[in-house]
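FYI - complex with shikimate-3-phosphate, inputs then prediction.
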Amino acid sequence: MILVTQPAAGPLLGELLPPGDKSISHRALIFASLAQGQSRIRGLLDSEDVQATASACRQLGMTDRFEGDERIVEGVGERGLQPPAAPLDMGNSGTAMRLLAGVLAAQPFDSELTGDASLSRRPMTRIVAPLGQMGARIETSANGTPPLKISGRSDLRGIDYESPIASAQVKSCLLLAGLYASGHTSVREPLRSRNHTELMLPAFGVPLVGDCGVKGGSHLAGTSLRVPADISSAAFFLVAGALVPGSDVLLRDVGLNETRDGIVHVLQSMGADLAIRNRRRFGGEAVGDIRIRYAGLLKGVDIPPELVPSLIDELPVILALAAASQGTTRLRGAAELRVKESDRLAVMARGLETLGVGLREYPDGMDVEGGPVKGGRVDGAGDHRCAMSFCVLGQVASAAVSVAGCENIDTSYPRFVDDLKSVGGAIGPDGSGDHRG
Ligand code: S3P
């Protein structure tokens, strides 16, 4: 799908409630399915990625229904899952596949996890190897990619795993398997990745052992949760608001978990006018309303490598932001971007170059020279975050930007185009003539 943007005709103005947090939504559905009794979840993201998790959970025996704005999930208990009748299709979602693999490795039945072309290229050895140390049996393709053929085992052993990468998917996969393993399972990582699993387990009645560990045989009990709006989706409007002259946009109920708020720090260090008010918590998760106001041209910055896990999914839009700022922005320590839904460093580099942006690509990052951005045709390569990043940059390009490969925006942010138009952005499908907000 192709989207075409025009240079924004005026400031972006208004208020938005971005969609529910994707990471928290996956976890809420999986934990509620494993819990004994009913869970009530408000603000769950309804996007293709989360639908893949919901559908897999249903095939494993969970039932759910809507009541007003709440999703009511009837859990089956950790030991109540039923063997799925067919392979479980995780679509585009690495989180869905890696988290569910941890659960399925410990079941008394076999299962298979498959995904779309993008997911079928993504590395799974990062979970298969430590799960193997726990006694799990999982087959991948020869190069360690999906499908995952899981021979369920009832005799997993807990481990203390020192992960070579900061990955919340690896950590969460192992903690889920650890709920079924003998003894304790704990995970250490080089830098702290998002901690939604650690915050949510106690809400389901599972105490953490240390900072990041569980005891085998712990039970989950149904609970009520409220999902914050996703800072990774809000990010597109934070950047658009910071770039389009005169803008003033309020984003409500945005998750501000400190393991996810790196983009706030980067925007502030670049000189953006960003104010957070109404700080509160939804359960263990910090939340606030963020107001972003245009404050003139922003300055390029060095992004400290230790900040990378806290803004990993926002890096495509941060690279777009850097392109329309003044001076050089340097990113390093972000090799993980090469194994996301696409090779995000390559996809962003090719698109930015097409729009006349000076840059230098490195194996683990990029230097971006800020300056004027031209119009042109770029390719989001079927990666939702790259596609939306180019659409945002298009608001400040000197001419139309046509973005191919936008179909997967629905994996995380189905209302993106409508939301951008609602604040005055200029975007529409190719050939629609509908570009004005
Ligand atoms: C996620 C963790 C991150 C992130 C992904 C969602 C999660 O991936 O990029 O979009 O929900 O646990 P990694 O764990 O691979 O770093």
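The longest helix spans residues 22-34. The first strand starts at residue 3 and ends at 5.
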